[in-house]
Amino acid sequence: MTKVRFPRLAYNKISMAGLALALMTALTIAFFLSVQSREGRANPYLGIFVYMVLPPFLLIGLLLVPVGMVRQWKRIRKYGKSAIPSWPLIDFNNTTHRNAFIVFLAGGLIYGVLSTVGAYQAYHHTESVSFCGQTCHSVMKPEHVAYQNSSHARVPCTACHVGEGAGWYAKSKLSGAYQVYATTLKKYPRPIPTPIKNLRPAQETCEQCHWPQKFFGGQQRQFNHHMYDEANTPWPINMLIKTGGGDPKTGQTAGIHWHMNIGVKVEYIDRDERRQDIPWIRVTDRLTGRVTLYQDEDNPLSEEEIQAATPRVMDCMDCHNRPSHKFRSPEFAVDRAILTGQIDRSLPSIKRVAVEAMAEEYQTEDEAKRSIATKIPDFYRSEHPQLFLDKRVAVEQAVVAAQQQFSETIFPEMKVRWGDYPDNIGHFIYPGCMRCHDGHKVSEEGWVISRECKTCHTILSQGSGERAEMASSQDGLEFVHPEDIDEEWRETGCYECHTGTQP
Ligand code: HEC
Ligand code: HEC
Ligand code: HEC
Ligand code: HEC
Ligand code: HEC
Ligand code: HEC
Which atom of ligand 6 is nearest to the CA of 485? Predict the structure, then answer.
């Protein structure tokens, strides 16, 4: 049997090193792929390694082979016999040449197929939730955790952040490359600024799944509050929210989803980065072309400011700006835990004590957990010593629940607290709808963007015990503020007193 031989030119240090590199990389890739398939689920770090870090080494290795051969060729031509022609002679009757050609062809084919599959896998990998949410683990942990607790927990990050089409894919990977660099060098801002400057328009993301024409009618919601008193008195408010929306063809475009650009175009100019201060709003009727301009009566924009600004057309994200990353306030988190029984409501003042323990500013999550674990028991030990002995288990459970709520809603390492990410739905602890509907946005004709409570919802029931009220007609109930603050709520926004902890 004859030994398989390759062209003599291939026997040089560079080509051999290249071949060794390529072989080693190929084996490593094969090893990791088999690990991954045995694990059965995508590991983000492994994915980056297999699909992004290793392939260039494979390519470099393979390229080194011809590079070495060319160098060898030049060397031989320089010092060797002049009979060597300037281009290599390929002779298929020569076994060595034939072997080299077959190896070259087979190798090329395999590499071609593998890199196509690899590119496809790399594409999928960089679009996966584990890549987005875990690779930059510490940076995006707040968004990832909030996402896992949202209605969109099964919607891939990219369905909202990238959408379909090659253009936005490339755009997102370019900005992503910068983000990877920023993360590696820890150069990112804390917390991550919001809103996202050039988020893809909602028509191309949200509206792929949600069909504005198909919304109509109202939506019933119950808001479960507990007072900050010793009894943690429940104060549920049950409302019909007039979502509306609908198809202009049927004339059904009233309600809250009226702003969705079906029959009208709503544009606004903001004064701050976060779009919380909106002094200028323009409404254009798409059918008649009529334009109505509303300005803040107390603090309008100057002519120059208006000229310098580009109005933003309102879309889904101007209200649903936190569809999958809601950072809940301690108040909301504790109310929820009491409602679900994770925290025992019979513990006196537990609402206040738990909210206070959660709301303090901590440097790390561990510090917060330790502090919660001392603050809550300390309160009962000193204020209710007998109860502390009788209800030890309930107190311990309250500690665990408060710690868990903390780690799902507040992220000290990224400086993420509820107040940093206003949610524009509603108006309880953030201005939200009241950015425009505060009763101070007036048009030249003297129209005011409505602050009337019933424009947006009717109250079906409110309060508990002796103070509970049920609506007896479609008009609903007049709002009753649980604490006596006179009629203050008629003029002052809820969010001016309520901030997510005790007002
Ligand atoms: C249902 C749509 C949706 C999904 C799914 C989604 N996001 Fe978001 N994300 C948004 C919107 C909307 C914003 C805020 C945009 C704004 O206000 O400008 C946002 C904001 C962000 C921000 C900026 C900081 C902030 O909190 O405002 C980061 C980071 C982020 N998302 C990461 C992720 C990651 C990681 C995933 C997947 C684990 C994900 N998102 C999934 C819609 C989504
Ligand atoms: C890939 C499909 C998909 C995309 C894209 C998507 N959603 Fe959703 N969305 C859903 C599904 C499915 C539900 C219902 C989840 C449930 O009922 O548990 C939902 C629920 C909702 C709800 C009601 C539940 C809630 O949290 O109040 C809102 C509001 C919403 N989506 C807004 C948006 C917005 C805004 C965007 C764009 C930023 C968006 N969605 C993008 C699939 C999607
Ligand atoms: C003016 C603010 C506003 C705009 C703009 C807006 N929404 Fe809504 N949307 C609401 C409110 C308020 C609700 C009631 C639910 C709530 O309070 O969370 C709602 C409810 C929803 C729901 C849940 C409906 C249901 O019946 O379960 C979905 C889904 C939704 N919106 C999607 C969208 C999409 C998609 C867009 C953009 C085309 C959009 N919204 C634009 C304010 C808005
Ligand atoms: C950027 C400004 C802006 C924001 C933010 C805003 N609105 Fe409006 N809204 C308007 C304007 C302008 C009108 C039209 C007023 C008029 O013509 O009387 C309007 C009208 C309405 C109407 C009456 C629609 C009809 O049936 O004719 C409802 C209901 C409504 N808004 C609910 C909401 C809710 C709920 C939110 C918060 C989730 C909200 N709006 C946020 C500007 C805004
Ligand atoms: C421009 C529309 C609009 C107006 C005007 C408005 N609201 Fe609301 N309100 C909403 C929306 C939307 C929500 C639902 C927020 C959510 O789904 O989280 C809400 C939520 C509430 C809640 C529940 C808050 C919570 O989180 O527990 C109460 C109570 C309430 N509104 C009372 C009032 C009262 C009282 C008035 C009149 C002074 C009023 N609203 C005016 C749109 C409006
Ligand atoms: C002038 C300040 C002020 C305004 C404005 C105000 N509140 Fe309150 N609110 C309070 C105080 C103070 C308490 C008592 C807190 C306690 O239980 O000790 C309270 C308690 C509550 C509670 C019960 C406990 C809790 O905090 O969850 C609800 C619910 C509530 N307010 C809703 C509203 C709504 C909705 C609005 C807007 C329509 C509003 N408030 C406007 C000051 C205010």
Answer: 1
**Is the residue at 198 inside a domain?**
no
Output DSSP code: residue 312: E
Label residue 1 by pLDDT band (50, 70, 90).
very low
> Would you list the DSSP string of 34-88?
HHHHHH-S--HHHHHIIIIIHHHHHHHHHHHHHHHHHHHHHHHHHHS-TTS-SS-
Full domain range(s) for residue 382: 330-420
- Residue 407 domain-assigned (yes or no): yes
84 Cβ neighbours under 8 A, 6+ residues apart: 76, 77
Q: Is the CB of 114 under 6 A from ligand 6?
A: no
Residues 312 and 434 in one domain: yes
How far is it, in rounded angstroms, from Cα 191 to Cα 186? 13
- Which of 214, 316, 423, 429 should be mutated for ligand 3, with most atoms under 8 A from CB? 316
pLDDT of residue 3: 62
- d(CA 41, CA 54) in angstroms, rounded, equals 20
* 310 and 434, same domain (yes or no): yes
Q: Per-residue b/e over 404-416, b at no fewer than 16 CB within 10 Å?
A: ebbebbbbbebeb
Q: Looking at the DSSP assignment, which residues form a beta bridge with residue 235? A: 225
482 alpha carbon, closest ligand: 6
Spacing, Cα 434 to ligand 3 middle (Å): 16
- Assigned domain for 136 exists: yes
Q: What are the tens digits of pLDDT across the range 233-253?
A: 999 999 999 987 666 565 556
Calculate how far, in angstroms, residue 180's C-alpha sits from the geometric centre of ligand 1: 17
Nearest protein CA to atom 12 of ligand 3, as residue: 425
Ligand 3 close to Cβ of residue 262 (< 6 A): no
**307 and 342 fall within a common domain:** no
